[in-house]
Amino acid sequence: MAGKKALCVGINKFEKYPQFALNGCVNDAKDMAAFLKEILGFKNSEVSVLTDAQATKVNIMTKLKSMVDEAKAGKLDYIVFSLSSHGTQMPDTSGDESDNVDEAFVPYDIAQKGNEWHPAHIISDDELNELFSQLPDTVLLEAFLDTCHSGTGFKDPFSPYQPRPRFIPPPSHKPFEKIAKAKGKVLKRVADGVTTKHHVLWTGCRADQTSADAYFDGRYSGAFTYFFLKNVRAGKNKLTRAELRKNMLADMKGKFEQIPQLELDATNRKKTIAG
């Protein structure tokens, strides 16, 4: 029987951008790791945690590639990836986005190159899709992305206990305008997010929303991660994924504007996370 592995990433501090510091992302990574071990039966050796300075793009992608390679070799049949950090945007150069924008995820070493994010220091959704598309159909991937996926901006100043959006705006909008002008027309969008039966994607919000970094029970967490784990534990992991999301939406209604998303096929929607 094949095994399982997980990577939990949480980044509060950013090497070149101290002004964008968050509070709850490291807690999220540790809480997700604990959930995997306590509820889903992962061994310590099966869960890797990268936080702050450990969570460079190279380290994150190296860990993910290693898990994908093991899965391709038949050694793994379940992979979990959780990421709590800022989200951002970058120009779409592949032509698969109608709005000329790719969603991207911020590692510790995020950096600029001219008026764009440096490709060696930012993780695009295209890169993750390309990597995870290599997984065999026999392998279940479950990803939890507690970041922002929208361009609503970054607001300061803020109260220490006021929810803060996990979003860093791109360095400049000129590259987006350049691509749009070069295309001359809007291209049809290729299916985004989960498109195969063996991928399960949880996100903290819709593509046009921000995910909150908030204060709960005397400590900081991502709102999505907090309510996900709260409902998993309350349901003793007997709830299906669809039921979990329904309960999360009820808990968050009126408190947070973000609407957590669950993208997967109907079969996995009716299953618990433990299968």
Structural notes for this entry:
The protein has 275 residues and is of the alpha/beta class. It has one domain (3-269): 3-Layer(aba) Sandwich (Rossmann fold). It has seven helices and 14 strands. The protein has helices at residues 25-38, 57-72, 125-132, 174-183, 223-234, 241-252, 266-269; strands spanning 3-10, 47-51, 76-84, 87-91, 101-105, 112-113, 116-117, 123-124, 140-146, 164-165, 199-203, 212-216, 219-222, 261-263. The strands form four sheets. The protein has a six-stranded mixed sheet, with helices on both faces. Strand 1, helix 1 and strand 2 (47-51) form a beta-alpha-beta unit. Helix 5 (223-234) packs across helix 6 (241-252). The radius of gyration is 18 Å and the shape is globular. It starts with a strand and ends in a 6-residue tail after the last helix.
